[in-house]
Amino acid sequence: MKLHEYKAKEIFAEQGIPVPSGILVKGPEQLKELQHPVALKSQVLVGGRGKAGGIKFADNIDDAKSVLEELFKLKIKGLAVKQVLVEEKLDLEGAQELYLGFVEDRAAKTITAMMSAAGGIDIEQVASEMPEKIIKKQLQPGLKTLNPYEAREMAIQIGLKGATMTKVADIMCKLFNAMIVHDAVLAEINPLVITKDGMIIATDAKMNIDDNALFRQKNLLKDVDISEEYTPIEQKARKYGLAYVELEGDIAVIGCGAGLVMASLDTIKLYGGEPANFLDVGGGATAENMKQALEVVAMKDNLKSIFINIFGGITRCDEIANGIVEFEPKIPIALRMMGTNEDEGKKILKEHGYNVFDSMEDCAEYAVKLASGEEGR
Amino acid sequence: MKLHEYKAKEIFAEQGIPVPSGILVKGPEQLKELQHPVALKSQVLVGGRGKAGGIKFADNIDDAKSVLEELFKLKIKGLAVKQVLVEEKLDLEGAQELYLGFVEDRAAKTITAMMSAAGGIDIEQVASEMPEKIIKKQLQPGLKTLNPYEAREMAIQIGLKGATMTKVADIMCKLFNAMIVHDAVLAEINPLVITKDGMIIATDAKMNIDDNALFRQKNLLKDVDISEEYTPIEQKARKYGLAYVELEGDIAVIGCGAGLVMASLDTIKLYGGEPANFLDVGGGATAENMKQALEVVAMKDNLKSIFINIFGGITRCDEIANGIVEFEPKIPIALRMMGTNEDEGKKILKEHGYNVFDSMEDCAEYAVKLASGEEGR
Amino acid sequence: MAIIIDESTRVVVQGITGGQGKFHTRVMREYGTNVVAGVTPGKGGGEVDGIPVYDSIREVMELADASIIFVPAPFARDAALEAISGGMDPVVIITEHIPVHDSIEIMDRAVSHGTRIIGPNTPGILSADKCKMGVMPSHIFKKGSIGLISRSGTLTYEIVDALSRNALGQTTTVGLGGDPIVGLGFIELLDLFEADNETEAVVLIGEIGGNAEELAAEHIKQNISKPVIGYIAGRTAPPGKTMGHAGAIISGSAGTAKAKIEALQSANIKIAEKPGDIPELVKSSI
Amino acid sequence: MAIIIDESTRVVVQGITGGQGKFHTRVMREYGTNVVAGVTPGKGGGEVDGIPVYDSIREVMELADASIIFVPAPFARDAALEAISGGMDPVVIITEHIPVHDSIEIMDRAVSHGTRIIGPNTPGILSADKCKMGVMPSHIFKKGSIGLISRSGTLTYEIVDALSRNALGQTTTVGLGGDPIVGLGFIELLDLFEADNETEAVVLIGEIGGNAEELAAEHIKQNISKPVIGYIAGRTAPPGKTMGHAGAIISGSAGTAKAKIEALQSANIKIAEKPGDIPELVKSSI
Fold it and tell me: Beta partners for C125?
């Protein structure tokens, strides 16, 4: 789960990381007065909001209010701006921008720490073109606090000196605390600004929380509004705990297990079809889960056919079959089912008049034909 | 620093350990009403308060008030009762009493976990007579959370089963959290009561906080009143950061380093003297520290002489000398000084008319003679 | 022969009293797995289908060699650490969606104890006609000479079924597990299959994301003499949402199906276009 | 010969820019210690008395062999872990009053890296006329053949001085440190002195509390052939306040001066009544 900038900054501030003073507004009327020039930053969970006009500046309250009017009408990569963080504007002339980050490193099976003196919006370009400018360090697995000396070694390596070096190292340790305390899979400050008079401050903040750890991070869920990050269909899928990704085509795909669903999409494409979505009901799905999966894919307009591909291991075919017959899909369905309790499942489906394939390829081909109208519905 | 039972129970409750409901009163008038029979427990930092009459029971508010009147007049091992914890009285008939504890283990250089089915006031007797009844486990050094399975293994070993076993293991893990979060060198529940209807509750609580970690446990210092645990002289010594233990004799002993001070006490005794105290000014003492040390020992009545034994390493003799001449002790002084900046120190002292010994034994002998009046003052 | 588990493996089921644990214990025994004990803390002294239940791994250390874990994700870290410290090997973690920070700790402890972890979020491991520690549908497997390693669960069944229908039996089939951080990987298992007399060829099933397939390709070039046949799921998947800047910095351009397929092909590995093509590619390789 | 440090030891001072660090760096150099660098984070690039100051141990890994730490207690854990990870050996921790939980971590890391820690809260280690890493008054030491191990700081000086005045010079003198948890102990050092050609006898200075002396006595019986002379401080100390029940459970009756003296005597170790008696006992043993 991605956190908004304002929320990540709240967490950073709790850990003692310096962030600009600011308030979150949900409408222009919530801004009452200004003490100083401000930056107005749209709170959307996509990158590139600056380039999309989502970050503006204002020197007085009237300008600020008219900027807010504008921002609350904006859509950034399809997302409506619903919240704006109004922050003290800093004097960034002559400032240095650092990058500080931690991320789960699947290959190394640990957390990797990163630091660079070339922070700012071009960090990804730096990563691909001058990777030596980003210092990386794989941390001891299971580390609960980052040792200050390790942070200092990184700060020294990116060329910092004196009090700036020790302060940045200290912020690095605090950022790691934020990561550990909140079960984050990513925590980064980009940029960490060092102003020309030596002030150090995190002007942007990113944190992604491990979805699998939300059961012990419930306080983070309190003021989360998922309506922004997801389409209505995706919201419904998340509510049901289904892995769903929306695609462009007209053949809905439901399967159990991400690999099998991906292979199903690939096979649909091989036969000339266009998948409408990726939907993984997960392992051990019940009849109820299957009904919910059908409800989710059916929300999409212009659907031509549904390809259901089940190879049950921990999932039992009879549960899946019961879910299908209870939902009674209105859209033509290409059904393939094998594995655990296969006979029971097939029996239920046949009793309700469904035809069941054994071969995934044959079934995919049939789903494409259904969609193109070659097969009767 | 020892915590009072009520404070330790507050911390336990924060960690989710079940404790009886209760309130702390500092005078009989603070108790307004009773919902149920209560136990009234004197909050003093010494053992054996039960046997000394410091724990009483009452069934109604009138009885409770008269018991409180009594308790607030009580002295337990010389300590006045200033606070009483009034707690719900539990039905302990047929209850089982367990012992749960963690302690720093100097020899093993880690924390040792302990659990016993023979908890209660006789646990020390159990420890010496039936040590096999106490399960001990040296934990992995640096562990930040106790793994539940390790706690369960101990609970199984003391003979617990079923839900009781898992609940006690859970409490053990929480007790460990309390230890780690608060830099304790000791955390124990004795007894952890299992009532005959299966309720599990910590009826007593002990925590000792590492004095050396108080710089990062400042919140624990907020409502600490050291006037109870220490005599006025000891309080003054603590205020100055000096290690001071009050003894029975009439020769004050000041030295640098615990070992040297202990050897000084031993030597005074060998020559037939009686030390009045143990005072270690510590390593690297300044003139100010030395003045404070003299101020502290001089607080004691009937002092006959002062034995100052300095062998400077990190401590500089000139600093010590300056402290002595600035304080101008009124009581006859036997002075021994060697080590770092010895010449400078001796020069200062001789300029002020002090005689300085080189030999510790000779000086101790002189201190004893001063105290007995054999040497002129 | 087979790798990691065989008829001599004595298995303990952690979480045996839960729904999944109970069901799959029965199915595993039907397949011939020697399930000797179950562990559920607080349920010690009972039994499930005649199998004695204990409170802790410590009590079954002498009885069992290997553990399979069905406990819910919030308790999986503890169960896995208990299995590792109790000397179980392999430890098969069926549980899915374990928090990443927990998995990191599990894998670190396993490395220092020399324990082989399979999973989490794995269908398990099965040595055909010998031992099954997992949740795969038993009836699709057939004894033979093909080793199979897969990052995907259900896709594995798909391919095992295709092999069996084409008279291509298997030595051992291993699901690496679908969680972000897992135990054994392609490389360790390729080495085991290389050393296994009965295995003639290995099928490697990958998917988009990470760089495990790229590293495997490099390893195969240097160390594996047996034929390897590959399949990569996700050729047509849209690029996933990246994890901030950090994800891009760490993974770079690796992880696409195209990159993986090219890496494998450069190691002379034949790549199937769809699962159904695999049996033909295997037959032409052995 | 000498143990642990000698004229070839290249020393880095952590916390060189603080008052104690600066003062004792000068005194150590005057004694002949080869101080090659100082480390104070944030002060890199400067110098102290002509010795270059760096920001980290990493930068001096090639220059220095051993570290002495003067940083304040709240930062000592970090400094010690940095020294250990940077390969310094020994690491002498002068700092006193380090939190116990920090010391536990330091000692654990040291064991896994094979690093010898002296201290915390130690006067240090001194190999006479060769190298001093510590804060002892230099002028009392004299080169000779007696090894000295002490749990106490200033009491060590007392006894070294007595030895030197009686023409009994020393090989190496080591203060174990006065904090509850310390690195090297009697046993490791006894073994080093046993193996050192120049050392003829060892003086062991203990004090009340713990059971280090009792364990040392046991070790001496089995493994040490050279004469050992002991002194235990605290014969007349009142029993300390015990640490709850747990302290009593862990330590039992061990820790009194009487128990320690009896244990040492049972290993044929001569015990001095007062520090001034030690030289005579040493002379009669060698």
Answer: C133, C174
